[in-house]
Queue: 2 jobs
Job 1
Amino acid sequence: MAADHDGVLAGDTARAGSERRADERLTVIRPATRWPRLDLRELWHYHELLGIFVWRDLAVRYKQASIGIVWAIFQPLLIAVVYTVIFGRFAKFDSGGVYYGVFVFAGLLPWQYFSSSLSSGAGCLVANANLVTKVYFPRILLPVATIVTPIVDLVLGFVVLLGMMVWFDEWPGGPQVVLAPAFLLLAAVTVLGLVLGLSAINVRYRDVAYAIPVFMQVLPLLSGVPFTLGALPAHWQWILACNPMTTVIAGWRWAVLDTPAPDAGQAALGVAVAIALLAAGLAYFRSSEPRFADNI
Amino acid sequence: MADLAITAEGLAKRYRIGEFQASYGTLRDSLVGAVKRVGRRDHSARHHEEIWALDGVSFSLAEGEVLGLIGGNGAGKSTLLRILTRITAPTRGSAEIRGRVGSLLEVGTGFHPELTGRENVYLNGAILGMKRREISSKLDEITEFAGVQRFMDTPVKRYSSGMYVRLAFSVAAHLEPEILLVDEVLAVGDAEFQRRCLGRMESLGESGRTVIFVSHNMQAVAQLCDRAILLEQGTVVLDGDSGDVVARYLQSGLGSGSNRVWPDDASAPGDDLVRLRWARVVDEHGGLLDAVDVRRPVGVQIAFRVLRAGAPVMPKFKLVDKRGDVAFNALDTSPAWRQASAPGEYVATAWIPGNLLNEGLYSADVAVCSIAAPKLHQHVQERAAVAFHVQDPGEGDSARGTFTGQWRGVLRPLLEWTVERR
């Protein structure tokens, strides 16, 4: 058998020799600069690994759960039922003329995406400490993978939403439906910025892991999940609009359910905050990246 | 002249000890620290004690060379490898690497217990830098090399540790980078598997790949590498033919020598009850010993100070061979230690009989512990506190007789044989 392997090796050497000229890569190692730039070519080189990380998270998540992926839609459904009874039936929150159950479930979808990305994303570097300290790859793949994985849940939830829309006879109002993906993209941008920043902070300060559940308790209310923004006084609307998820949820519901459109100025504020978050998160992540392996 | 695969110039890496030890303080500590610094207007908090784990290392490696990296614990071998693999950035200096780099600082990096063997091969392969296509085309080879064909669809959490390690190494062994950086991966698995790993490493070297190989297994370094670099306290002490460098390393007892002293009581290893003072390897006359005649007894001495009256403490050491296998544990169980030990200084000596150990490098982890049945509590344990090299002068009266080839085993006792002709 040993001879066998030697044979294989010899063959591969010949191939490696011819390949070498094609993809000769020169790696230069230097002390970390303060503001390293993102090497997009290298990221592309590693795109398969991103897919593998996403696949791993999905495969592991439901490995020993017998009803598996059903859990992904169970949580938003349960919350939607509770909200519908309490806010819709008793408190009679305004839902912009849409059946309250559909209204709140639609709002919960981007919210759930945001919340599960953030909860798993903030700890992603620490959870993968064994990789970070043992092998090189662009570290940014880990936070990016954690915001890609929950898209699967989002898609499943969307199928359920379509079913509810048919059942309750609620339909998109017009051409604004084409903007629906743009609002989801805004959610992704927001959460990516937060995950980049928080996961890097979490390497040094494990406080992050404790802080996030606290914010997760109050944020659905501050993002306008159970009500329309129009029900609030104007200055409150502006305060809530500082949170990009407010724009995401109001805009997404406007696109798919024809609830009242978000105010353009408030939406612009949300987009600006999201972009600022992404820029700040990326800058902090990149500047602390060279020390991850030392500090983790 | 072959092209250079790696050139390193003045690589240095500084760790701040504070940063290193309390690597995750809380946010509050940092905020309080920052406020204090501003308040006092000095920057004393910045004056962490610093360690240069690597201090100006320069070398170059031609394409196809196989380099061994040796040195004692803390000499900077792993730090150098971590810099070359880009896991961490150097504080100063630079390096250029020409070609696709594969690194192997641990086998099974990223293995997930819930995933099956096959899934883990893809996961681990991708993490080590293989393409999906490449893994698919080698899957059968990898499986066969590991000998786990029947268990590829079983989650690896159900694997025995041997199967797990074999599969993990097998993936790594099928990496085919132009430059391979390897750290101590041979310290795993059983002897037969280690032999196969060494064979694989050897064929990688012969096939013209550039390899840097960190190991405590001096025999393997001498055998596999053309050239070796000896690191000590972060600097290159010796760079040359691997046989010469290994010999010099073993003779000088640089790794952990036969004499280890902790001069400062406050920083000596220990807790509030007991502190280590020194540890030594001695011969029958009390002289220090680096190289031990396989036929003579060896004394391991542990000196410690008991700081206050407390639980009865007893000296202990663990003898580890060069592969990291534990040869044995030894604990002084004499009744003296059943009473509370009075404060003061103690020197314990344990004699390892002659004709018991095999040839090669052994190191002793020394400890002082107390027993609160059923638990053994180690007040202090110092890994590889002392080391010595067992040699056979080959005069024919040891357990190997006049045979001079390889003689395997952690131990090599001289047994009493009786043979009767019937």
Job 2
Amino acid sequence: MPLLPRWWRLVLAALILITLPILVGYVWLVLAALFERVHGLVPAGSLSLKNWRFLWMGAVEERPSIWVALKNSLVFAGSVASLKVIVASMAAYAISRLLFPGRGVLLGLILVLHAFPAISLIIAIYYILRTLGLFDTLLGVIMVKVALELPLGVWLMKGFFDNLSWEMEMAALADGASRWQLFWRVALPMVRPGLLALGTFAFISSWSEFILPFTLIVSGQNWTLAIFLQSFREEAFVDYGMLAAVGLFYTLPILLLFMVGQRFLLNIYGGGLKA
Amino acid sequence: MRGVVPFVLPATLLIAVFFLAPAVLTVYLSMTDLSVVTFRNPGWSGLENYRDLLQDAFLGRIFVNTIFYVVLTLVLFNVGMALVVAILTSLVPHRWGDLFRALWLLPRMTPVVAYAFIWQGLMREAPFGLLSNITGISQHWINAAPWATVIAANGMIGASFGMLIFTSAIRSIPNELFYASAVDGASTWQSIRRVVLPMLRWPILFVTAYQTLSLLTSFEYILLLTGGGPGFYKTTVWSLYAYLLAFGSYFGNVQFGLGAAMAAVLVVIGTVMAVIYLRVFNFRALVAKPKIEVV
């Protein structure tokens, strides 16, 4: 808004003050990961490589090595992101561009599910995965995660397709291209910013996901980084230094990704909804 | 029309199996005696789980906890703090505004477990915990002030949703309105009160409605920070209780049926509220017919 009061520096100071608790948390995480001991935000020991010993620690009992957990997290987040982008785009394109029986119902369903709190379904999801033999598999959690976030994805991609001028498509249609070809060759490349935003969002949200893998995965070889980190928190003696190092190792990629994709992500975190 | 099937089939299948079916199944399972013993072959038990729930000595407490948690988090952070951040970031130059909005998004982005661990670290006893050092009172702050911790930790994440919605609403206010109020000699504060806040009435209603539902069902951070304690159900809310009944080992025997009954209540509330939102927030405009087929 075109209101820049003369005392805006005062406002800035207030902003810094209320944002401080957030910043302090990340500063602490970095310090705690690097030093032997940290008192508040003051390092009270020397730099410590010992905090990072998890990097060369092998599997201990059920806990796999971090590299297995890292690989699983990459597979999980990567698969969810790519599946979600493709499946959501296809459905969104149909809803945006084609008139078919049940279109209204499908769109209505998507909107209701978008507002519906999916996490309350976890007990039944557990039962379904057990029944399908997908319990304790990465594939199962991947499909669940994609399904639960599809409504948001379809809704967002529909917005992108709606905004596309369709002269290009008309021309291609006139040249005898099928809808299917049209979608892959003409429409999809034109919504690349949307694909990128949705993909990045899905990657971040799956990378950070806790409750689904925690509930639906048991075996160590299928653990993601979230469960790996949590397993240290559950120990009787909590080694804060090492936990901070694992936490930093786990959080850093997301922070970098966010910095790169920040601008086009803002819209999605508002739920893709303009009120 | 046959051409449409490949487009919508994958999405429809995934949603049907992993979203719709669980919703229906939750209600069904809530009427069975499903437990570890009867997992393969649960027996029908009608409304027995619901009767058991009503007789649960802790249900009243959990109900009160849930209301307390949802209302306080919503008022203080998801709407309150969101409003403050949205307005303050609109009063500073753009690049600063963007920077602070991005910072407020960080907690939402941060892996759930890592975020909980950061709180755990800051709330330790002296000399390690920052809060203990600042206040001079050395205690395990999560145990000493479990509600404050849970509400603040959730709120710092929850505020960003409202912040984004309110910011885009503020940006869509026509500039003329601000110039007009400036010409009338209004101070910044008066402009905020007379121009901005009235325009935010609708977005505030929207965020309140939307976030009530999500707070009602979210339990991840409570599970990780306090586990529902300390002591007997101090910070246990409805959705967490449902989860613990079904998956928590400290009940000895996991009771999926009972957990499902509690979850079913949330599913029904969630469905009803989601449908109401769509009615209120202009469903017809959202499902307008596609352009290309009209021509």
